[in-house]
Amino acid sequence: MTRLIVAAGGGGDAVAAAMLDAALYGDEDQAVILTYAWDRLLIDPVPGPRGADDFTGLEPLTPTVRKVPAEARPIAPAGSTLPRLAAELPHTFALIDPRHGAEGVTRQVEELITHLKPTSIDLLDVGGDVSARGDEPTLKSPLADSLTLAACGQVNAPIRLLVAGPGLDGELSHEDLRGLLGPLIHTFTAKDTGPISAVLEWHPSEATGMLAAAARGVRGTCEVRDAGLPIPLTDESPTVHEVDLDDAMSRNELARAIMSTTALDDVEALSREVCGFSEIDYERNKALWLKERRPTKLDAHSVLAQLDQFDTEARGRGVTHTTFRHLTEALNLDGSQRDDLRQLLINSRPERYAAPLWHIPAAT
Q: Which of 3, 62, 279, 360 is a plausible cystine mate for 141, CB 3.0–4.6 Å?
């Protein structure tokens, strides 16, 4: 028995897909997870998603779909978490290649359905911005989710749209999503995070990290991203809901606009037109800024002093937790120093590690 899960935004959505598959089906045959190789600048210094030509060692599944085995490697200077996911998780990871627009992704999904004959097909989005209209002021990364939604909306097969961790991506709040969420499919528990616990120790996804932390009982306000966006962690945070796919298509103006695109450049152009921006442009600009910036050296004494100052200011903002990704940027460190910073903090103050988040205690 084979199941197909399309990770709507790639990255952390793929990890969440593995957790959901294990939670719902246990040790049955693991799903095939179709996902982008799009890890943002913390892992991949090259803006935008990677295509099949950006890897060595991929294996053919269908004429247009490639499997990412543990032995695959991104071609420098590109980076990707997918080979390591393939090495540490029992699922099969297949690569979404967005270079041929929505028509190309639609073809990939259709070929996988023909090849796998899956018993179920899910489109999974952590956070829920797949249901955005496109004009929300908080929307930051609609392109990937809209592209997979546009593709799945054209496939002649029953596809279930699932939103895990409503509001955790910080793009639509849980209040914005409340009227759109359908039946409750599952509420993640601490036990459900077991199969991906090792992955969460190194994977940089903030939304999926918060999803796992919420499943483990963490509650409060978590500060994320370079801008320090506050995300509430509530009893709703570890839930998974079904959302009507046709309703999402009706709301998502970008998804409707890009349905007939045959190139990623066209998807980008329509994103600029519909949403007012392209998230890949943001990555291009940030990549230039990072290239010119001289990162701070990771000196333990200096970093811990900076952390104390960060704690004081964060408490004043009502923050109780943050991610190591946000801390890396807030302390003016380079993305490549994230793991070293994480180890330094956990070794120095282990009582504050609320895996995979960092706890900011109240003032004493």
A: 279
Side chain identity, residue 141: S
As beta bridge partners, residue 354 has 357
Q: At residue 346, what are phi and psi to the nearest 5 degrees?
A: -65, -40
Q: Among candidates 10, 340, 14, 24, which has minimal Cα distance to 200? A: 14
Higher pLDDT, 295 or 155: 155
**Contact (Cβ atoms closer than 8 angstroms) between residue 334 and residue 299:** no
Residue whose C-alpha is closest to residue 103's, from 235, 214, 271, 266: 266
Q: Strand pairing of 184-187 and 55-56?
A: unpaired
Cis-peptide into 77, omega within 30 deg: yes
Query: Both tokens of residue 355?
Result: 């895996």
Q: What is the pLDDT of residues 143-194, one digit of tens each?
A: 999 999 999 999 999 999 999 999 999 998 888 898 999 999 999 999 999 9
Distance CA 250, CA 333 (A): 42
Burial 187-197 (b: 16+ CB within 10 A, else e): ebeeebbebbe
H-helix or E-strand spanning residue 123:
strand 120-126
Q: How far apart are CA 25 and CA 1, in angstroms?
A: 11
Mean pLDDT for 292-297 is 71
